[in-house]
Design brief:
Radius of gyration: 16 Å
Number of strands: 5
Mean pLDDT: 91
CATH topology: Rossmann fold
Structural class: alpha/beta
Order of helices and strands: HEHEHHEHEHEH
CATH architecture: 3-Layer(aba) Sandwich
CATH superfamily: HUPs
Largest sheet: 5 strands, parallel
Strand order of the largest sheet: 3-2-1-4-5
Shape: globular
Number of helices: 7
Helix content: 40-55%
Low-confidence stretches: none
CATH class: Alpha Beta
Number of domains: 1
Distance between the termini: 39 Å
Amino acid sequence: MRDKIKSVDELKKIVTQLKKKKKTVVWTNGCFDLLHIGHIKSLQKAKSLGDVLIVGLNSDSSVRKLKGKLRPLMPQKERAEIVAALECVDYVTIFSELRPNKVIGILKPDIHVKGPGYKKDELPETPIIKSYGGRIEIVDTKIPASTTKIIKKILKRFKSD
């Protein structure tokens, strides 16, 4: 599982070799703070779109900027290992920026996958993906799961004790 966790430089070499073999490289990213069924279904759908799935994981510092000072609940190393343990995930890399534009620009995946609630033309990643001929896919798992909702549910239950 740990051998699936790679630096961007390592992945650049791997992606270059995969593309020489005409493999379709799929990229998705997120915080994956508390892994839930929505994450699993979304990752499985992402993998089904190509040959190799790379997951970009927001670093602890970028999760704090995106979600607030109380997040993440689990450190990036643990989150990376959990995501890497999934059968549908081929590689994981951690990025510290708020958005994965820099990593996407380096790796140039064939397909960039986002979950429901996004519009292709409104993504901050869209210009970079279009610049090299990549495509964006929005996958909807029809499962209304979210880490924030799970945390709120847990807090509500413990407040009632």
